[in-house]
Amino acid sequence: MLALPPELILSAYANGLFPMAKDRDDPTIHWLDPIRRGVIPLDRFHIPRSLKKTLRKRPFEIRIDHAFSEVVHACAEPTSDRPRTWLNDELIDAYVAMAERGFAHSVECWQEGRLVGGLYGVALGGAFFGESMFSRVRDASKVALVELVCRLRVGGFELLDTQFVTDHLRRFGAIEISRQDYRIRLRRAVIRRASWPRQPGSLAYSLFAGGGEGEEVAAAVRGSSQSTTQTS
Questions:
Q1: Would residue 20 count as lying in a domain?
Q2: Long-range contacts of range 22-26, CB-CB < 8 Å, 24 or more positions apart?
Q3: Is the confidence at residue 37, as pLDDT, over 90?
Q4: 32, part of any domain
Q5: Per-residue pLDDT for 203 more than 90?
Q6: pLDDT for 7-24, tens place per residue?
Q7: Alpha helices in the chain (DSSP H)
Q8: Rounded to a whole number, what is the distance in angstroms from the first to the last CA of the chain?
């Protein structure tokens, strides 16, 4: 039996809490409910100019939900910039179990058959709770984030929760909101009907492609954002 049943974590998310450990080897799970919450407004997502150039080059193969467990384990690895991580074994097992039940998803960047970056999070109604990301080559996690936002827009999602705001996320339009404001947005989002787009390939690359393919994806992204704005 899992120490953290998926139902428990999903219930916590629906009520504004999320789990963390203090360290990779810390067995204790802490439930956080920050006074200030980080979100990326999907209708105001910003792509830096330099990253747009990278996207046009299509440097990675984008895969969706292909190697979820590998992504989570990579996010749990310490790096020179992040010597301590908050994912312990109990949390890793719980997120893998949620992925098997269709509640957790990964966006992955592959290069020459190797997983080089990505992110994962949990979807509940029209809310997506971004958990962690990693990058082994330049811009891999950034490309994964753009891909995530494109899919959330097309899928009809309303809320992208980043938990906290970093300088890195501010470049993409992340903001802090109050706990009260967050809970209002959360209650509205979790009852919204949304679907996780599973189609292969990259919506982000298509968005910057010329011709019909790019125009079709751009129209879907714009239409979804307008629908979200009207709903709110």
A1: no
A2: 22/86, 23/84, 23/85, 23/86, 23/88, 24/76, 24/78, 24/84, 24/85, 24/86, 24/87, 24/88, 25/88, 26/88
A3: yes
A4: no
A5: yes
A6: 999 999 999 999 999 888
A7: 6-14, 49-57, 68-75, 89-100, 140-155, 167-170, 179-190, 203-207, 212-231
A8: 40
Rounded CA-CA distance 4/175 in Å is: 30
* pLDDT band, residue 216 (cuts 50/70/90): low
Count, residues in the chain: 232
Average pLDDT over residues 119-124: 98
This prediction has a pTM of: 0.90
Boundaries of domain holding 91: 45-231
Cα 226 to Cα 228: distance, rounded to the nearest angstrom: 5
pLDDT at 213 exceeding the cut of 90: no
Return d(Cα 152, Cα 144) in angstroms, integer.
12
Residue 129 CA to residue 39 CA, distance in Å, equals: 9
Record the tokens describing residue 37, joined without a space.
């919450």
What's the structural domain count of the chain?
Answer: 1
